[in-house]
Amino acid sequence: MTEEIDAFIDYLQQVKKSSVNTTMSYRRDLTQLWEYLKQQGIDEPSRVTKTSLNSYILYLEGQGKASTTISRVVASMKSFFHYEMIQGNIRKDPAEFLKTPKIEKKAPVFLTVEEVDRFLQQPSGDSPKEVRDKAMLELLYATGIRVSELIGLTMEDVNLGVGFIICRDGQRERMIPFGKAAGESLKHYLDTARVRLLKGKGSPWLFTNCSGSPMSRQGFWKIVKYYGEKAGIETDITPHTLRHSFAAHLISGGADLQAVQTMLGHADLATTQAYITYLQKDPLRKAYTGAHPRK
């Protein structure tokens, strides 16, 4: 089934123009499914049945996988076997009537303006690492981009003069503005810290570690955790918390929903509108005044 998976991923990239994150998730899900099926003696897509797929779902549940993870796996299976049907590789789609587990929608966690201010004040030293961390955190909150998009930024993606970044996700790209605070932190980082981190080496990446490689997701997650604890924030803060805070603060300040949708890269406006529901339940959010408080 490896060749079939490769062909399917190629179809997603070339025809559907799916994002890098999407294709990576599909490949990972399908490869793990294939490993499981091989252990069950199933060696080609035509031998896969609804029963064998349901067996895999039960296996994932037994492993303690979250409903969100299993739901994504089911979506991967449905897409793959539908593609196999279209290609004429199988006669019957075994995933057609698979049921996705019910997912409890959790309210997005976001910080108050005061908490964000306190958090962003934590990296205040002049060491190359702290200057870099400050620039990364300011830019993340200023633009609301995903962690994968932040660490994937190159030098060419930033326009300091006009104040915007170009965020690329697969074949798609979007232009996102940033304010004065993020601009100043970025300039300070580029003028003083980046060259010291690279130690004379070249690198196309905007934010790097000491070897010139881009920051890892795990590395940045630890940075966020460290400064969150240092700021005394009790909320379980993650990089996505800043993305949620960016959206919540803009919408609370009266920003246009479609503009926020574009900046966040949401495919569906309903995803962006969901923030309104959560904001209406929290009276603290009514105190927000500016469209984005950190100008």
Could you explain how this protein is built, in words?
The protein is mainly α and 295 residues long. The chain folds into two domains: 2-86, Orthogonal Bundle (DNA polymerase, domain 1); 113-287, hpI Integrase, Chain A (Orthogonal Bundle). 55% of the residues lie in helices and 5% in strands. The chain has twelve helices and three strands. Strands 1-2-3 form a three-stranded antiparallel beta sheet, with no helix packed on it. The longest helix is centred in the N-terminal third of the chain and has 20 residues, at 20-39. The chain starts with a helix and ends in a 15-residue tail after the last helix.
Secondary-structure blueprint of this entry?
Elements: H1 2-14, H2 20-39, H3 50-62, H4 67-86, H5 113-120, H6 128-143, H7 147-151, E1 158-159, E2 164-169, E3 172-177, H8 180-198, H9 217-230, H10 239-252, H11 257-264, H12 269-280
Antiparallel strand pairs: 1-2, 2-3
In summary, what is this structure?
This protein is mostly helical and 295 residues long. 55% of the residues lie in helices and 5% in strands.
